Amino acid sequence: MIDKLSWIAVYPDIVLLVMACVIALLDLGIKSPMRGTTYVFTLLTLAVVAFMQADLALSGTTIYGFGNMIVSDVMGNWLKCFATIAVMVTLVYGRPYAAHRGMLRGGEFFTLSIFAVLGMSVMISGNNLLVIYMGLELLTLSSYALVALRRDHATATEAAMKYFVLGAMASGFLLYGMSMLYGATGSLDITTIFKAIASGQIRHQVLVFGLVFIVAGLAFKLGAVPFHMWIPDVYQGAPTAITLMIGGAPKLAAFAMTMRLLVEGLLPLAVDWQQMLLMLAVGSLLVGNLAAIAQTNVKRMLAFSTISQMGFVLLGIMSGVVNGDALGLTANAYSSAMFYVVTYVLTTLAAFGVLLLLSQEGFESEEIADLAGLNQRSPLYAAVMAVCLLSLAGIPPLVGFYAKLAVLQALVASAQGIQIGIAVFAVLMSLIGAFYYLRVIKVMYFDEPITASSVVAPLDVRVVLTINGALVLVLGLFPGGLLALCGAAVRQMLGT
Q1: Environment class of 141 (CB within 10 Å of its CB; exposed 0-12, middle 13-18, buried 19+)
Q2: What is the enclosing helix (H) or strand (E) of 102?
Q3: H or E element in which residue 60 lies
Q4: Please, is 376 exposed, middle or buried when counting C-beta atoms within 10 Å of its C-beta (0-12, 13-18, 19+)?
Q5: Strands, DSSP E only, in 227-289?
């Protein structure tokens, strides 16, 4: 008999599943090329689900349901809420782009997006290895289909094939690592795995062997070096609206999956996985920033930027367990990583929103040169793009600066020589990274525009993009609220 609390924990997911089916059926009778009715129903569904998730997060309770297979806690519910809102914003930005390129002949763009949100939600809620894997596969299968949605476009089809093949390999890594953990501990339940490892009665070599494969799978999903090469190819080849879909909200789910597996399940092996994350973070910062300098394609540049940004997230997670501290430095480090990934997604949404806005019918705004003179064509959108780029570079007082500062403080607070050295290295890499962001700003403000036409945007896009850009600035000026939210969520997760 399934208890009432189990249903309470998953009722937002049930709403998502039911409405995805309803919207798919409803869309069959819609002939409008802009899919207005489907669009409105999708946004309403996601808004209601985000409200439910926020309500569960604000309740402050932790619910283990369906025989401990899923967990509903504050951290998970906030990440689900942010991911749902991120997909809503992506659909607002992406609908005009998709309509001009024949991607709205059916309602797949919207229904697959809802299934992607459902996959993220299951990933974030998973307290069982197979539940996490099922959520991951639902997300990735939806993503493969979305990348290939522009059927008549060879580049998008090629990107989908690369994504599919490499994604299948990464899923294999993750599943093999999970099978090793199951073989060693005799359980798929994350809490039971933690207790079994903490008992010290399992051979360390077997656990580390499984851990290597799990970290490799997680590194692929986060886009960390050396499992990163799909990111620039898929970001560049996919339609820009889909690039935002796979480069935004799924990062929140990947972070949650990393926390569930490494922190909640494999914390007794922290000494081993911290070393692995250290190598991944250093490689990501180095390769991401240096490779981005050579790019002339904005989407490809932002792809390498993503790799370097994920390096900072890994540094935050890596600096968590120090001298056996359970809630002090540990909670600070994990909350800084959560703050970083949330603010990164917020900034990425606005940056790609501007690119989508500039990609008019028959024209892809993908090259840095395509942004030339944007300030003369539209000062507002040039300002939004500049704010996002400066935030990604870590320039105060924007939110990206406080995100980087929080991670660096967590590293320094550990009082470990190697981690302080890594903090210095991260600052140097950020200085190098500032170059390619500032280069784009220089092109927008000082180069001659390639066209004199002003930038026209639908009302919904204009409103959401303005709010999105303003949040990057406002959260930079007043980061305390979001930092406190992340801190409280992580402390509650660690306490249970």
Answers
A1: middle
A2: none
A3: none
A4: middle
A5: none
